[in-house]
Amino acid sequence: MDAPTYSSKQVAEMLGLPPKSIASALKQDSYTGAEVWALRAQLGAFPPSLGRRKQLFLNFKGGTGKTSLSTSYAWRLAELGYNVLIVDLDSQGHATKCLGFEGEDFDKTLLNVLVRKSPMSEVIQKSSLPNLHFVPSNLTMSTVDLALMPMAGREFKLRNALKEVEAQYDIIVFDAPPSFGLLNLNALMAANDLFVPVLADFLSFHGLKLLFETVQSLEEDLNHVLDHVFIVVNSFNATFKLAKEALEALQTHYPEYLLPTIIRQCTKFAQASSEGRPVFVADPGSKGATDIEALIQNVLPRLRAGSAPGTDDSGAQRAG
What we know:
The protein is 39% helix and 15% strand. By secondary structure, it is an alpha/beta fold. The strands form 2 sheets. An 8-stranded mixed beta sheet has the order 5-6-4-7-3-8-9-10, sandwiched between helices. Helix 3 packs across helix 13 (287-306).
């Protein structure tokens, strides 16, 4: 994927500043991600702290568009000025591909960290945005669950491995495979927030039930309580009667978790992911991009409200 460029209007939007107020600083027709970051530092236009979040995108049911959603969500947070790390947990490497890379091109993955005790810093890679990094994945990750099985403290390997680097990031996003195993258990134990992408169909209820039972068992058996659980309705088509009925059922059974923002079905969103591009690069004006932006603006105030008083903001000013 080629490095994206931004118009002066887009730059002002990303910085959260009125274009007129920074007109004197906008001296170019277009800006690269690195140039936007330099301008952000020059103007001191960093977003409010979220208190260091680790966020897991997980559904035990496949086909919910989880990876397209998580990578575009993380990409947009980086555009808005947060330091973001994406950790690809799926051996298919779809999150890696959605960022424009091929997992097979990398010698090291999270397997090297969790099983072979490599430092996390050795596997982190840079994307085309200076403040968005990622841990790649490929087929070697398919052996992680088996390798973790005999280890002591196996549920906490990921949480402990992140201690080396977590102060460098405002948000760490885990993109998980649609399964339950030791790797996803590690991700649940490391996460503060859980995002559950679902389709508006009744098959999604089976995955939700199992997932909530798992979360409850973590609270009871391992004393780990998530700060937030967000259910996100993805790829919604309001013309389908079944979709409307499923949405009403979700609103009835999970009102405290269901986000009001709905991600509408969007061909350009799906196409962008298949091409290895976040939707904000492929078509920032599309329904998919508009809806993810709305989701972020819905979630951020909740995260800020729950952040610890006096949290250091320095992470939002560090990149590279």
